[in-house]
Specification:
The complex is a heterodimer of chains A (about 325) and B (about 375).
Chain A lengths: L3 H11 L15 H10 L5 E5 L3 H6 L11 E3 L5 H17 L8 E7 L1 H5 L2 H10 L3 E7 L39 H6 L5 E6 L3 H11 L5 E7 L3 H4 L6 H10 L6 E4 L2 E4 L9 H5 L12 H29 L3
Chain B lengths: L1 E5 H12 L3 E3 L7 H12 L6 E3 L4 H14 L3 E5 L1 H16 L5 E6 L13 H5 L6 E4 L3 H16 L7 E6 L7 E5 L3 H8 L16 E2 L8 H13 L1 H16 L7 E4 L6 E6 L2 H14 L4 E6 L1 E3 L3 H8 L4 E6 L9 H9 L7 E7 L8 H10 L7 E5 L4
Parallel strand pairs in B: 2-3, 2-4, 4-5, 5-7, 6-7, 11-12, 11-14, 14-15, 15-16
Antiparallel strand pairs in B: 1-8, 6-13, 10-12
Helix pairs in contact in B: 1-2, 1-6, 1-7, 3-4, 6-9, 10-13, 11-12
Classes of the chains: A alpha/beta (about 325), B alpha/beta (about 375).
Chain lengths: ~325, ~375
């Protein structure tokens, strides 16, 4: 189990897998997540990246921030692409052309996963390829300008679900991708957050014990899109965790474990207030009703999660 | 060895003998049997291929890209809507210079939905950057699948290669096909030597970067150089394969009784077989008719085709797909090669859409129609109007 010291050592050893010099925004959570994930894997790694902020900011020709083999093909096919890489690895290992143990990681945003890449992800999960899929979940299409995705929370002001004088932001609830992946009965699924990097590192380590598909949905603050201060990535994500809006949990071989239970569950407003994307909710009755609904949904889902933990712990 | 087999089986046999590292494929009529045969080879342990039974053609091509970039030899197959779904990633495969070989069982694109042959799928991928070859018969489909591997993987080319075979007409009909012994095919295709494979973890490469206006243009120009290298490679692979197989493949197209022909049909795919019968019949009656059957469509051998047609009086260029709002694509390919100089009269025939039969009488009508042809005319063959 890594502590801060171990994380620091790993950063020294493997930190150059993803180097500086990329053009991700100041305050973006993604590089912290990418480094924590790659540093937690001991074996050589090959990375597939969906189109998105990380890809655009790290691979501007003729430069590259990647010191591991890296491939970007398109927006919706990170899972299918890494599946092909992994199939090649199996075939070439069988023929004795590859002798090293190599691990495979896909990075994709919420748009590339919840929406346009869902089919490719589902197919790759069902076929059982050996890969770790990391969702960099910043709850909208940030690379193209903060358009709503199916990960965008109800009430959020996004450029294609704007807060208007009649409609107060996105009318629909977000999709629960993590549970969709759990329903594929893959060996390891988890939610993590940039606010809890040791927890994330632990989860990557546990995931990589398994051969087969693994997914970690990582909450990734976007100060630009969420309209929060540039130094807020960890703080805002921590509020998402402490309000139980984004619970940290894992499902290991079907057994649920909540990896962090806040001592005091904060009201949802604590997380909403500092974010510009929710500011309008506090200014109208309609908005206040949405806040109440968000709170009710968080409470219900948190209870469900605790119940799933209780129900499945016996299986462990 | 000569055997009676369908076009599917001929393609699957070539694939078995090549034994690629990865096959990623999704079922679609009239391609599915290729996938089925190959899955059976895998199930029976006849090949050591990793079969990736994807959930869509989009993922098929995506997995092919991942596998080929990883350093594997990769083959796929599809048709019609499947190719349409692949096209986004086919462009990317070509830009990454990945030598993915694809059998395309030509089928009309929807809508209306139709499962039968025309070339609208191949035409959709015309500008994708993939090399495109058309087969007349199951034999040619087999032969070009083997040759395609060498063309695709040649260091100067490194591009996807599509081998087109007419859906149903070729895929489902039984024909005599002579296959080569397994060892001969394996020797011919050789060991695959990937460039900058992802699985070379000690020498990490970045594949599929983001290129802005400062580099995109140069990268696309470099891709064109791959296409420009194809003709020479195509001819040398043909020559080597002809020696190996005893079947005479020579040139970008087959010139059938073309030397002194006054009236000529240009066509791609299985219709060439019917056209040959008609040419023979008319020749027997003393008519100077001939056929030019295109094998290599992309890159298009403009100069050679123009040279071969320059002695003709009238040429019917037959497109098995509409290019809405303009003449057929093959017509434009050929007539543009004559720009600024004297040439024969050219008429464009659109034929056989959605599997409409092309009997010998229709081909005879085309030759007859060349008597009064006017350049630039667009005619429809076998259409009720």
């Amino acid at each position: 189990m890594p502590n801060v010291k171990v994380l620091a050592q790993r950063q020294e050893q493997r930190g150059s897998r993803f180097t500086g010099g990329h053009s991700l925004c100041s305050g973006c959570a993604e590089p912290m997540i990418v480094r924590t994930v790659l540093n937690a894997i001991e074996d050589p790694v090959v990375v597939a990246n969906a189109t998105g902020c990380l890809e655009v900011a790290s691979s501007r020709y003729p430069t590259s921030a990647w010191n591991v083999p890296w491939i970007h093909s398109a927006f919706e096919n990170a899972a299918a692409t890494i599946a092909g890489v992994e199939a090649a690895y199996r075939a070439l290992s069988r023929k004795g052309k590859i002798t090293k143990r190599i691990r495979f990681v896909a990075f994709a945003g919420d748009g590339g996963t919840y929406d346009i890449g869902l089919q490719a992800l589902s197919g790759a999960l069902e076929r059982g390829h050996d890969f770790l899929y990391i969702v960099l979940n910043n709850e909208a299409y940030m690379n193209t300008g903060v358009q709503r995705s199916s990960a965008t929370p109800r009430g959020a002001n996004a450029t294609t679900s704007p807060a208007g004088s009649v409609i107060p932001g996105k009318p629909q609830d977000r999709k629960d991708l993590t549970e969709i992946v759990v329903a594929h009965r893959v060996p390891y699924v988890a939610q993590a957050s940039v606010s809890n990097l040791i927890d994330l590192a632990n989860k990557v380590e546990r995931a990589m014990k398994y051969e087969g598909p693994k997914l970690i949905n990582v909450y990734s603050t976007c100060p630009l899109g969420w309209r929060t201060p540039w130094d807020s990535a960890v703080r805002i994500a921590k509020l998402a965790v402490d309000t139980c809006y984004w619970p940290l949990y894992e499902v290991e071989e079907g057994v649920y474990r909540v990896t962090y239970k806040p001592k005091e569950k904060l009201p949802i407003e604590e997380w909403l207030k500092p974010q510009g994307r929710f500011r309008h909710l506090f200014k109208s009755e309609k908005g206040k009703a949405i806040i109440r609904e968000l709170q009710e949904a968080v409470d219900r889902h948190w209870e469900e999660l605790l119940m799933k933990e209780r129900c499945t712990q016996g299986k462990a | 060895m000569k055997k009676v087999m369908t076009g599917h089986k001929a393609v699957a046999e070539a694939m078995r003998q090549i034994e690629p590292d990865v096959v990623a494929v999704y079922p679609i009529t009239p391609q599915s049997e290729i996938a089925e045969y190959y899955a059976q080879y895998v199930a029976d342990g006849l090949v050591r291929t990793e079969l990736v039974p994807v959930e869509s053609e989009h993922s098929a091509m995506s997995a092919c890209v991942g596998a080929a970039a990883a350093g594997a030899r990769v083959i796929t197959a599809t048709a019609s809507q499947g190719l349409a779904l692949m096209v986004e990633i086919l462009y990317i495969a070509a830009s990454m210079r990945l030598p993915i070989v694809m059998a395309l069982a030509n089928r009309a694109l929807s809508g209306p939905i139709n499962i039968h042959c025309d070339h609208s799928d191949a035409y959709l991928a015309r500008d994708s950057g993939a090399v495109q070859i058309f087969a007349e018969s199951a034999q040619e489909a087999y032969d070009y699948m083997v040759m395609a591997q060498r063309i695709a993987e040649h260091k100067d080319v490194r591009l996807p290669v599509i081998v087109n075979l007419d859906g149903f007409t070729l895929t489902h009909s039984s024909q005599v096909v002579e296959t080569l012994p397994d060892e001969r095919v394996k020797e011919f295709v050789g060991e695959y030597e990937p460039l900058y494979p992802l699985l070379d973890v000690d020498n990490p490469s970045t594949w599929g970067p983001f290129a802005m206006p400062d580099y995109y243009f140069e990268l696309k120009r470099a891709q064109q150089a791959g296409m420009e290298a194809v003709p020479e490679v195509f001819l040398s692979v043909q020559e080597e394969y002809s020696r190996l197989s005893g079947r005479p493949y020579k040139g970008f197209f087959e010139a059938y009784k073309l030397d002194d022909a006054e009236r000529v049909i240009v066509v791609m795919g299985s219709t060439a077989g019917t056209a040959k019968v008609v040419v023979d019949e008319l020749r027997a009656r003393g008519e100077r008719v001939g056929l030019l059957k295109v094998w290599l469509w992309r890159p298009f051998p403009r100069a050679e085709v123009a040279e071969a047609l320059s002695g003709a009086k009238a040429v019917a260029i037959m497109d098995r797909a509409l290019s809405f709002g303009n003449m057929g694509a093959l017509y434009l390919d050929i007539t543009s090669a004559f720009a600024g100089r004297e040439g024969p009269t050219f008429v464009n025939y659109i034929y056989g859409l959605g599997g409409r039969d092309v009997p010998a009488e229709h081909i005879a009508q085309v030759f007859e129609g060349l008597e009064d042809a006017v350049t630039g005319e667009l005619r429809y063959l076998g259409l009720r109007e």
